[in-house]
């Protein structure tokens, strides 16, 4: 007898979620979409393995206008962070200034002077990547390793963000769910859970340049950042927001995308889709089990305008992390080249 494997897959209908049992719903999808061992027992980059030289070469061919768009939010004290888990906004401090140079207090010869500075900040306080050592599932890190063997007080000893320093350049695809689902405002309301059928409908509506496949980096615009810029940060960091439904885990797995990023603080819908206590359940599935790199707090508004103007939603995307040894995340200035 032939077994219908599709019948064994977790449901992609949010209405089928048992809202009282997040652990069971997470566990079902973690097991179904687990990539442990797929790239060998020593793997450190997960789904970023889907990006190869041919993929990058093809992506470079998408640059026809020479337009470069930064997808980064600002890194300054006027940022969204409110101190949760000791996350603060960047603190920029000058150690040498023009005033010092004018006063001749720097001790340099023949009139030369200079300015110098440093910055103090959490690595995930603004536009950033979540590394594979950022989230664990029942004490397990990516590829089935014990979390305590991976991340110690010395940092991420196995999957540190430095392993991706020369990897994250590929074809980028923008899915503007804000404009697709709310054409009047271009912004989804807080708590809106984006489903798999909606992702696929957005791709169909935007056209062939939005097709998503192996090695792509998908950018999902909800419009939440646009509202924060207009109305103030409010609860942008850690509060209610639109985002991906837990039920999109299957789509994230079968498309074989290399990475995904959103314009929100937490990537997935908030509040999460349960009546029982839950916190970032989609993270728990896709980072330690699937090995998927996630980006958050990206500025996708200018890119969305350009894509709409050119009627093309694909581009070369360069978004390497800072090679901070042992880090579980990294600030970035991703750029789209059209």
UniProtKB/TrEMBL annotation:
Keywords: Hydrolase. Its EC number is 3.5.-.-. The keyword Hydrolase applies. It comes from Microbacterium terregens. The keyword Hydrolase applies. Residues 1-22 are annotated as: Disordered. One of its GO terms (molecular function) is hydrolase activity. It holds the Pfam family Cyclase. This is Cyclase family protein. InterPro entries: KFase/CYL (IPR007325), KFase_sf (IPR037175).
């Amino acid at each position: 007898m032939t077994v219908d494997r599709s019948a064994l897959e977790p449901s992609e209908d949010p209405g089928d979620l048992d809202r009282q049992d997040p652990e069971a719903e997470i566990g079902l999808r973690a097991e179904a979409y687990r990539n442990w061992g797929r790239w060998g027992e020593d793997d450190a980059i997960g789904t970023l393995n889907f990006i190869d030289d041919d993929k990058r070469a093809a992506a470079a061919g998408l640059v026809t206008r020479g337009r470069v768009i930064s997808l980064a939010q600002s890194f300054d004290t006027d940022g969204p962070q409110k101190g949760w888990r000791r996350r603060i906004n960047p603190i920029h401090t000058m150690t040498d200034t023009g005033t010092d140079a004018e006063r001749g207090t720097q001790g340099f010869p023949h009139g030369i002077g200079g300015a110098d500075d440093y910055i103090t900040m959490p690595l995930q306080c603004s536009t950033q990547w979540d590394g594979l050592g950022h989230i664990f599932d029942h004490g397990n890190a990516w590829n089935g390793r014990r979390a305590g063997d991976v991340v110690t007080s010395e940092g991420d000893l196995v999957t540190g963000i430095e392993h991706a320093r020369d990897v994250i350049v590929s074809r980028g695809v923008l899915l503007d769910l804000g404009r697709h689902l709310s054409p009047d405002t271009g912004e989804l309301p807080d708590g809106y859970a984006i489903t798999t059928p909606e992702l696929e409908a957005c791709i169909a509506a935007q056209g062939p340049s939005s097709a998503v496949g192996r090695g792509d980096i998908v950018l999902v615009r909800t419009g939440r950042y646009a509202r924060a810029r207009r109305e103030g940060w409010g609860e942008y960091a850690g509060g209610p927001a639109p985002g991906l439904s837990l039920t999109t885990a299957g789509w994230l797995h079968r498309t074989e995308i290399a990475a995904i990023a959103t314009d929100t603080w937490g990537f997935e819908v908030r509040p999460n889709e349960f009546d029982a206590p839950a916190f970032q359940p989609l993270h728990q599935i896709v980072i330690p089990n699937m090995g998927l790199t996630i980006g958050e707090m990206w500025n996708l508004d200018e890119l969305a305008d350009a894509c709409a103007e050119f009627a093309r939603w694909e581009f070369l995307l360069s978004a390497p992390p800072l090679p901070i040894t042992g880090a579980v995340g990294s600030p970035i200035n991703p750029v789209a080249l059209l």
